[in-house]
Amino acid sequence: MFKFKSLAVIAACAAAMVLVSCEKEKEFPITPGETQLTTTAEGGEISLSVICEQSDWQWSFAEEDASQWCTGKKDKDKLVLTVAPNYTGKDRSLTIILSSSNSSAEVVLTQGSSVTFYKVAVPDFSNMDAAENVGKSLVYEVSDKDGKVIGVLCNEYIPAFSNSNRATVFYPAAASTDGQSHIQAEGKVLDNWGSVSWDAAKGSCTYSAGSASKPASEFYLMNGKEPKEEPFQNASIQDATLKEVTITDKAGKVYPVTKVGTQYWMRGNLAATTYSDGSAIATGLTKDDWKAATSGACCITGYEDAADASDKAKEYLAKYGILYNWYAVSDAKGIAPEGSHVPSYDEWNQYYQFVGGSKALGNNGPKYLKLSGMQALFAGARDLNGKFVDRGDYGYWWSSSEYTGEDATANPDHASHALLGYSFDEETYDEYYFFTPNGYAPYREAYSLRLVVDYISFSK
Known about the structure:
The protein is mainly beta. Helix content is 14%, strand content 37%.
């Protein structure tokens, strides 16, 4: 009986062993989403999906030197590869080995070496404050062969760069996350190949000087992005297209633009005689009509009618633009051409603080207005009684803000404005010109308008 039981146990064990040996080892096939990957000379990040039931699958490069230009990181069911730029002039490739405990697969990554440089001819920004050049913009869009904007070129005031000259700066276009166009916050200063970096929230910048001995008359954008002094050997070179950034009113008059800090402004004064919807702004008001006005009206400095055809009136119109009462400025129909708006007091103050505040503008207003790219125009005003005053001595520019100072209750129906004028030192009696955003005046007075341009902003 004992022998029978032993034989039975042995038979049962043998049967179990046969079953185990016949059962196949479980397989963990590993399948990449793609077996051939390609990327441009610029490189960047590539995500490769990996299908495998075994969560601890592994990966490696077949080539020992592959890690010199490509790195990888496993992220759950994908492998994220970071590929360095390829400026060797030759295509290169590597093999990625994916493996589970009993399966493997290979993926080949190939990186091209074709690099395109866009040649950018820098406009002549010298003498741009002369009368014959004030109609030219100090901001240009730079576009590739397909018309895509790849950057913005500006001739702008950077306080740390110079107290007497503007710098020429190129800002590459930035990737958009909100559907709007943006530029990178760091620009290349083409005067010496230094750099400027902006804090958009504070409206301030950090400037680092370069070592180039003379300003660049041309430069090259590698793949439309990175500025270089010279292209790589054997690279493809194409000419970039430059276009002045301007705004245009309903009558077709074109206004040039300047960049000041993180803002964009018209260089000169508005000369529109219609609202944004095309309807006419009242003009030709006599003194009595002007004193009684409670709606929008405009004129030329020294002339009641904005359509006056005399030679002098045309001369003043071309130089000074139009004077508007604040009823016209604040009319619901709008007065600013598309792509611009009337600056608020805060925007005028932002301009003022960036250019130097009272330290700079307090005693040398015209110099710093011109240095910022604006025209320093003394158009004067038409006062609330309809009299023309101060032409040649003062310039006034409305804001969109009603006056809210401490004495606002005693001065109802007043709005804020900026002011360029002269004063004198009480001790030496020396005259000096100043600029301030802190003026205010009755709605019925007529002042110039200098608009903020709603243009491309820094990436966030």
